[in-house]
Amino acid sequence: MIGLELYLGVSAVLFVIGVLGVLIRKNAIVVFMCVELMLSAVNISLVAFSASMGDVHGMILVFFVLCVAAAEACVGLAIVIAIYRNNITADISKINLLRW
Amino acid sequence: MAEFVWLIVVIPLIGFLINGLLGLSSEGYRKQKSVIGWLATFAVFVPFLIAFQIFLEMNAGSEPVVVRLFTWIEAGSFTSDIAYRVDQLSILMALVVTGVGTLIHIYSMGYMKTDEGFYKFFAYLNLFIFAMLNLVMANNLLLLFLGWEGVGVCSYLLIGFWYKDMEKATAANKAFIYNRVGDFAFLVAMFLVFRTVGSLDFDVIFSNLHLFNGDIAFWVAVLMFIGATGKSAQIPLFVWLPDAMAGPTPVSALIHAATMVTSGIYLITRFSGLYMTSPEAMLLVAVIGGLTAIVAATIALTQYDIKKVLAYSTVSQLGFMFLALGSGGFVAAMFHVVTHAFFKACLFLGSGSVIHAMHHVEHELEHEGKHVHFDPQDMRNMGGLKEYMPSTYKTFLISTFAIAGIPVFSGFFSKDEILAYLFNAGLGEFGAVYYALWGLAVLTAFLTAFYMFRLTLTTFHGTFKLPGKFKGAENAAKYLHESPASMTAPLWILAALALVGGFMGVPEFFVTTFTSTDATVNWLYAWLSGVTVRAAIILPYGVKWTLVAIAIVVAVGATILAYRMYDNDKGEATDAAIRERFGSLYATWEDKYKFDEAYEAMIIRPGNRLADRVLAVFDVKILDGFVNAIGSIVQFFGSLLRFVQTGVINTYAIAFVVGVILIIGLLIF
Amino acid sequence: MEIINDLLLFLPATIVAIGGLTVMMLDGYKARSRTIYTTTMVFLGIALGVASWDLLMQAPELIFSDMAGAGGTAAFGTFIVVFGTFFTVILTHDYLIGVKHNFPQVYPLLMFCTFGMIVLATANDLVTVFVGLETMSVCLYALAGIIRDKRLGVESALKYFVMGAFSTGFFLYGITLLYGATGSTSLPEIGAYTDGGLIYWGGVSLLLVAFMFKVSAVPFHMWTPDVYTGSPTTITAYMSTAGKTASFVALVLILDRAMPFIATELTATFSIIALLTMILGNAVAMVQDNVKRMLAYSSIAHVGYLFVGLAAGSVAGYSAVLFYLLAYTFMNVGAFGVVAYYEKNHDVHFNNVESYAGLGYQRPIMGVLLSIFLFSLAGIPISAGFNAKYLVFSAGIEAGLVSLVVVGVLASAASAYYYLRVMVYLYFREGKESVSLIEPKKVYSFSLVFLALLTLYFGVVPGGVTEMIYGYFSDSMLTATAP
Amino acid sequence: MLEAYLPIFVLLGIALFLAIVLAILSRVIGPYRPSATKLRPYESGMDPVGDAKERYSISFYMVAMEFIVFDLEIIFIYPWAVRYKELGLGTFFAVMVFILILTLGLIYTLKKESKNFQISKSTN
C-alpha cells in the first residue's frame, strides 16, 4: 500500500517543476505547458486526499479542474497564435512593449 | 428661529447652483452680470439676516441648539449626522463670514465688472461661503472637515481663477498642496479623537474631555494645530499665502484675510477645553505664533508689492492670534479675528481699489497709443493718491490706525488684550518663554504700525510718481479717479466697523479701576464665556495699565517714526537707508528668510535631480517642473520601482513566487 | 421543485447566462451589431432590475445544496457586478465603434464573464469559487486581447493569461491543501475547523495568494499596469470594477465564513500587504505620464486601502470594504469612461497626460465629469470616495492599526498630486494644436452624468447603504470590533 | 499533525533542490541553440504566417478545440450515465441543459468558422 505522503510528494515535486518552468522557460507554449503541469500536479493531490478520506468532493473538483484546464487551453492557444502573428515570435522575453 | 439655521448654509449653495448651472448652460445668462451679481450677493445677505435674527434671539446664557438634518454616515457603532450647531461662537463666526462676505460680494460687482468669467467667479464665491459656513456651524468634526476641505478647494479654484497665467495656476497648486499637508494631520487628529471618545459629535467630545489623558490630549492638540498651521498660514506652512495673492483682490480680502485663514483659530478655540489640559501644546502654539508674527512682520517691511505687504501683515496678525491662543486668551483671539476681519478686509479692498485705478491708467494710456508697462501693484509707482481717491484714502487710513493699534480704534483693544494675556501667561508654567514671547509681540506690534504706515504714506502721500518714472506716462495723473460707489460703499462700512468694532471688547478694568465695582462692559467676553474656556487674568491693575501704556507708546511711536521717515516721498531713500543700516539682516528679510528656497533645496530639488538621473537611463521625460514637496520624494522611489517592471513575464512570475514565499513565511512561521 | 426555487433566487445570473447564449447565437447567425447590442442591453437591464430587487428585498439564504448564497452579501456583490457590466456595455459599444473595431463577440464574452463574476460573488463553497473565478478569468483573457491586430492588446492578453493561469495553479493547490486538512470544501465547514497545522496554513496562504493576485495586491500586482494599459479602455474599466468587486466580495466571504477564528492571525499579513500596496501603487502612479497607466497604478493603491479594511478583521472593516467597492465602481467606471471618450477621438498616444491640455474647455461637461470622478478617487469630501476611505480607515483605527492608517492617510493625501495633475492639464494648460472633440452620444454622456450623481449622492448620504451592509454581517462569527 | 507530514516537506525540499539543480544543469551543460523553427508555436505543425489583419486560418487548432468540447461532455456525462436511474429526473434535466449549452457552442463554432473547416478538409 502506497501511503498518502508519497502521492502528495509526487504532486509537490511536479508542482515545483511546473513553477520553475514558468520562471525559466521563454517559449510561450512551453510556459503554458508548465502551467498545465501545475494543474495536473494538484489533481494528483486532490485525488489522493479524496481517496484517503473516502470523500468524493475532491474527485468532483478534479473534473472541474480538467474542464477549466481545457478551457484555458483553448483561449491560451488562441492568444499565442495572435501574439505570434503580431510579433513573429513566441519568445516571451521579447514581448515587452508594455513595461514600467 | 434657531431651527432655521440650515437655511443659512443652504442658501449660498442654491446661489452657487443657480449661477453655476445657468452660467454653464446659457450664453445669454452669462451676459446678465447685474442679475448674477445681485443674486450671489443676496445668497449671502439673506443668510446674514437670518443669522442676525438668531443672534438677536440669543443671549450670553443661551444653551447650544443643535439642528440635525439627516444621518450622513452610519456604520455599526459609528454615526455622523449633517447637523448644525447654534451657539455663541458659531453664530459670531457666521455673522462675520456672511457680513464681510456680503460687502465683498457688492465690491466684487464693481471690481470684476469686465471679467469674462464673471458668473464663475460669483458661483465660486457662493460655494466658498457655503463651505465656510459648514466649517463654522458644524456640530461634528467630520462635517467640519468637509467644510475645511471645501474652503481649500474653493480657494484653489479662486486663486487660479485667471488660469491662463501660469504663475497663478502654480500658486493655486502650491496653496492646495500645502493645505493638504495640514489636512492630513487634522484627519489623524480626528481619528484619535474618535478612538478616544467613540464619537465625533461636539457634545459628546466636550462632555468626555476627561477621557483625553495627558499624551493623547497633547497629540490631538498638536495634530490639530498642524492642521491649523496649514490653513492659517503659520510657520512652516505659511509660504503659500503670499503667493495666493495672485488671485483677484476680493478673494484675497475674503478668503485670505477675513475668513478662511482664521478657521485654524476657530478650530482651536472650539477645542479650548482640550488645549487647556495640555500646557506643552499651548506653549508650542504660542511659540509658533510668536515666530510667525515677527518673521512675517520683518518680511512685510521690505516688500513693495502693495498686496504682498498686506499678505505678510495677515500672516503676522494670524501669528498674533495664535499667540493669544497659546497663552490661554481664546476670547482675545476671537476678538482679534473679528476686528482683523474688519480692518484687513477694508485694507485689501482699498488696495484693490488702488490697483483698479492703476490698471485703468495703464489701460487709458494704451488707448492713447502709449505703451507703458508698469506693475500696477508696486507702491513705488504710486504716491499722492489721496487727492485722486479720497474715499479710498480715508478708509485705508482708518484701517491702518486700527491695525497699528492706535487707541480707540478696534485693533488697539484686541491687540492690547493679547499682550495682556501673554504677560499673564508669564506668571504660569514656562513663564520665561512667555515673557520672551511678550517681548517679541511688542516688537512685532511696533513693526506692524511701522510698515503699515510705510505702505499708507508711500501710496497715498507725497506726489504721484508714475509720470516721472516712465516715459510716456507724463499725463497719467489725469486718468486717476476714484472707484465706483459699489466699491467705496463697502469700504466705508468696513472702515466704520474698524473704527468702532473694538468697543465690543473693552477690557473690564478700564471701568472697574475707576468705579471699583464689578462691571460687564466686555460684551464679547460675556458672550463667549459659555463656549470657551480661558485662563484667568491675575495681573494687578497697575501692571495692566502699564501694559496699555506700553502698547500705546509703541504704536504711537512707530507711527510718528514712520511719518517722519516716509512722508513727502522720502520712502525709497528711507528704505535704502534702512537697508544700509541692517545689511545682511535686511537681505534675509527681503529674501523671505529663504523659506521657499529651503523647501526647494531640501525637498524638491534633490528629489528631482535623483529622479532625473534615474529616468535619464530610460530616456523617460520627467514631469515639466510641476513638482511639489511630497511628490518628488515619492516620485523618486516610484521611478526606482520601475526597474522591476521589466515587461517580461518571467520577472513577473518571479515576483509572484517571492510574494508566495513572503505570505507563507508570514502565516506559517 | 427545489431547483426551480433555487434558480429563481439565482435569477440575475440565470438571466445573464441565457442572455449570453442568446447573444452568442445571434452573433453566430450574423445578426446586425446593433441588434446584438440592443439584446445585450435588454437582458442586462432585466438582470439589473432583478438584482436591485434582490438587493433591497431578499433575505440571506443558501441555495443549490449550500453551494451558493442569495440575498445579503451575495445580492450586494451581484448588484455591483451587474451594475458595472451594464454601464461597461454602454461605454464599450460606443468605444469600439469609435476605434473602428466593433466585434460582436465582445457582448457574449462580457455576459459570460459577468455570469462568472456573479457565481464568484455568491459562492459558499470553494468549488463554486473556483468555477466562478475561472469563468471570469478565461473570459477576461479573451476580452483583454479582443482587438486582435493591436500588438499592445494581444501582449496584455498574453501576460494576463500566463500570470492568471499561473495563479490558478496556486489557487488550486491552496484549495487542495485546505480540503486535505479540513475534509471539506464548504466555507462554513472549513470555518468550523480550528486545529491548524502545516497543511491547513499552507492552504490558507496559497488561497490568499491567489486572491491577492486577482485583486492585484503588491507583490502580485505586476500584471495589472500592463494589462490595464493594453486592454481596450472600457474593458479595463470593467476589469478594475466588476472584476475586482467580485474577487473582493468572494475574499470577504471566505474570510468571514471560512476563517473567522484566524482573523487576528491574518491581521499582520494583511497589514504588510496593505502597506506595500498603498506605498507602491501611489509612488509609481506619480511618475506615470500615461493616464490609463496612472489609473492602473491608482487602482493598485485603492486595493491597498481596501486591505486596511481586511486587516482590521472586524465586521466594521469588512462592511467598509464592501462600501468601498460600491463607491469605487461608480467613480472608476466614470473616470475610464471619460478617458475612453477622449481616447476614441484620437490615436492611442492620446492617453499621454500632455495631450489632455486644454481639453476641459472643449466639451465642458466631460471635463467637469472627469474632475468629479478624480476628486472622488482622490478622496476629497462630499464624494463617495471620501466616505469609503473614511470608513475603511476608521475601521482600521478601531482595530488598533494606527500606524497603518497614518500611512494610508498620508498616501491618499499624496495621491491628490497625480489626480490633480490631470486636472491641471485639463484646465490650466493651453492645448498645443487645435483638437476638436466630437459631441458624445446622449446615452454616453447621460450614463456618465448618472455615475457622477451617484458618486456625489453617496458622498452626501451614504447612511442607508452603510447600515444595510453592516446588517449583512449580523450573524458573523467575528466580534463586532476585533482586537 | 506536524510530524506526520514532515516527510512531505523533506521530499518537497529535495524536489525543489533537484529541480533547481536540474534546471541549472540543463542550462549549463545542455546545448542551447535557438532556431527559428524551435521558437515557432508549433515545431511540427501548420505554419501560421501572414498579416495580422487577415482572418485567421485557424483550421489546425479548430479541430483540437472541437475535440476538447466533446471531451468535456464525456467527463461529466459518464458518471451520470452510469447512475442515471438513481439520480432521478432533476439531474436528467440538468444534464440535458448542460448538453444543450455545449450544443449551442458547437453550432456557434460551426456557423462562425464553417469556411475554415472546408479549407482544412481540402488541405488535409
TrEMBL record, chain A:
Q: How does the protein associate with the membrane?
A: Multi-pass membrane protein
> InterPro entries of this UniProt entry?
NADH_UbQ_OxRdtase_chain4L/K (IPR001133), NUOK/Mnh_C1-like (IPR039428)
**Which terms under GO biological process does the entry name?**
ATP synthesis coupled electron transport
The places in or outside the cell where this protein is found are: Cell membrane; Membrane
Keyword annotations from UniProtKB, A to Z: Cell membrane, Membrane, NAD, Oxidoreductase, Quinone, Translocase, Transmembrane, Transmembrane helix, Transport, Ubiquinone
Sorted alphabetically, the Gene Ontology cellular component annotations on this record are: NADH dehydrogenase complex; plasma membrane
Chief subcellular location equals membrane
Give TM segment ranges.
Answer: 6-24, 31-53, 59-84
- Write out the GO MF terms: NADH dehydrogenase (quinone) (non-electrogenic) activity; quinone binding
Under catalytic activity, the entry for this protein gives: a quinone + NADH + 5 H(+)(in) = a quinol + NAD(+) + 4 H(+)(out)
Q: How does it assemble?
A: NDH-1 is composed of 14 different subunits. Subunits NuoA, H, J, K, L, M, N constitute the membrane sector of the complex.
Q: What does this protein do?
A: NDH-1 shuttles electrons from NADH, via FMN and iron-sulfur (Fe-S) centers, to quinones in the respiratory chain. The immediate electron acceptor for the enzyme in this species is believed to be ubiquinone. Couples the redox reaction to proton translocation (for every two electrons transferred, four hydrogen ions are translocated across the cytoplasmic membrane), and thus conserves the redox energy in a proton gradient.
Give the family, as the similarity comment puts it: Belongs to the complex I subunit 4L family.
* Protein name stated in the entry: NADH-quinone oxidoreductase subunit K
Query: What species was this sequence derived from?
Result: Cyclonatronum proteinivorum
**Which lineage ranks, top first, belong to the organism behind this chain?**
Bacteria, Pseudomonadati, Balneolota, Balneolia, Balneolales
Q: Which gene encodes it?
A: nuoK
